[in-house]
Amino acid sequence: MPKNVRIPTPLRKLTNNEETVAVDAVTVAEAIAELQSRFPGIQERLVDDQGQVRRFVNVYVNEEDIRFLQNQNTPLKDGDEISIIPAIAGG
Question: For residues 62 and 85, what is the distance between their CA atoms, to the nearest angstrom?
Answer without folding.
Answer: 13
